[in-house]
Structures are given as structure tokens and as C-alpha cells.
Write a structure and sequence with these properties.
235 residues, mainly alpha, 10 helices, globular, membrane, transmembrane
């Protein structure tokens, strides 16, 4: 989406802004801590479960990375750590750019919506597993959305940015289907080729992709209607 000719130029900056950096960095740090703890706990649960079934650690890590939730939570942990620490390395500066932060937020919100709409009632975890499940699929999406609304300023956004946001879910789908064809394991029932067949799975994938595009469009629309941040707030 390109800015209208009469719009003021949007600020292309890095997060956190100088004002209010304390609040922004504190919330980013809190999100990073929650994400790292949740990812670590999920890693322990997944690897331990595979070890109990006679598999090795490598198989446990492979199973962990089969789920979009885990990969996205890892992206949240890395991205918000870079924001909180004001990382100056090239990767750190990449993760601090508002379009990249927005993409990560859209991904985790999509994960939360998809889980709560399609998967929540397929199982009923209890105890710490229930707490972990809510953290991954509800708490982190809400915290990231709140951070985005409060601290991510209006930024330049072109069509290329939106198309690049699609790379992650499309690559995940491709890799997951390829993995499934070699291992017969599909992490989600709506992309289980063995049970549904490729035609049904592709329809489901297109519907999910459409939902992602709608969600992405909402964030794009909100960004376009935000007030222009003062020039003095650039990082």
C-alpha cells in the first residue's frame, strides 16, 4: 500500500523510539521474557514427550519446529529481545524496523486466532500445560498487539513489504507438506494430506492464507490512519 500524495511522509525508523523509550523497552523486555520462557517450556515438553516414545533429541527438535506456533513464538522472542536491548548489529537493526515488528505481530496474532477458532476444542490440557497453552496462543498475541498499538509509529509501507510478509506462511506450508510426505506427520488436522488428500488440504491452505491476508490488511489500514509521529521521536 503506497501513501497518498497528500499524506505527510511517514517516519522510517527503528524501535524503540526515544520517547517513550523506557515504557517501550520495558514492555518489549517483558514480552521477550514471556516468549523465551514459553518457548523453552514448550521445547522441554515436546522433546521430553518424544524421548519417552523412544525417539532422540533431534527428532524432538524436528517435531518442535513442525508447529507454526513454536516458530512464531521464537520469532517474537528474538524480535522483542532486539527491541529491548536496542541491538545495533545488522540482524538486530533488521528486527527493530517497524515493518518487521508489524509482520511478527501479525504472525503471532494469526497463530492465536487460528488456534482459538480451529484447534482449541480438540484437546483440553490441564495444569502447567494449560497455562503454557494459554501463554502461547492468547497472552503473547494480546501483549504483542498492545505493544504494536502503543509503541509502533506510523511507517512507510509499500506493496513489496506486504508481499514479503507472505513469504513466512507460504514457506511454512511448503516445508510442512514436504516434511509430511517424507515422515507421514502433519502437525495440524486441516493440512493432514493422508486423511484429507491434497485437493482438500490446498483448499484449506488457501482459506487460511485468505484469512491471513485479511488480518494483514487490518494492520495495514490501521497504520495508514495513524497520526504522523514527531520528527524528534526518531531513534
Amino acid at each position: 500500500m503506497s501513501p497518498r500524495p497528500d499524506d505527510p511522509p511517514a517516519v522510517d525508523t527503528e524501535l524503540p523510539l526515544r520517547t517513550p523509550s523506557v515504557a517501550s523497552r520495558s514492555m518489549a523486555a517483558a514480552i521477550a521474557v514471556v516468549a523465551w520462557i514459553a518457548f523453552g517450556a514448550q521445547t522441554n515438553v515436546t522433546v521430553h514427550r518424544l524421548l519417552m516414545r523412544g525417539f532422540g533429541v533431534v527428532e524432538g527438535v524436528e517435531r518442535l519446529t513442525s508447529y507454526l506456533t513454536n516458530l512464531t513464538v521464537l520469532a517474537v522472542a528474538i524480535g522483542f529481545t532486539c527491541i529491548a536491548m536496542r541491538a545495533r548489529s545488522r540482524p538486530g537493526r533488521f528486527f527493530r524496523h517497524p515493518p518487521v515488528v508489524t509482520a511478527i505481530v501479525v504472525y503471532i496474532v494469526f497463530v492465536g486466532i487460528a488456534y482459538n477458532a480451529l484447534l482449541r476444542y480438540l484437546w483440553t490440557p490441564s495444569g502447567l500445560r494449560a497455562l503454557l497453552n494459554e501463554t502461547l496462543h492468547t497472552v503473547l498475541p494480546l501483549l504483542c498487539t498492545l505493544y504494536w498499538l502503543l509503541f509502533v509509529p506510523r511507517f512507510r509501507l509499500v506493496l513489496r513489504d506486504c508481499l514479503l510478509w507472505l513469504v513466512y506462511p507460504l514457506c511454512y506450508l511448503f516445508v510442512t507438506l514436504w516434511r509430511g510426505s517424507t515422515t507421514d506427520f502433519y502437525p495440524y488436522p486441516f493440512i493432514d494430506v493422508d486423511r484429507l488428500g491434497y485437493a482438500h488440504v490446498l483448499v484449506n491452505a488457501l482459506l487460511l492464507l485468505l484469512g491471513f491476508v485479511v488480518l494483514m490488511s487490518i494492520f495495514v489500514a490501521i497504520n495508514a490512519r495513524r497520526p504522523q509521529p514527531p520528527a524528534g521521536e526518531e531513534a
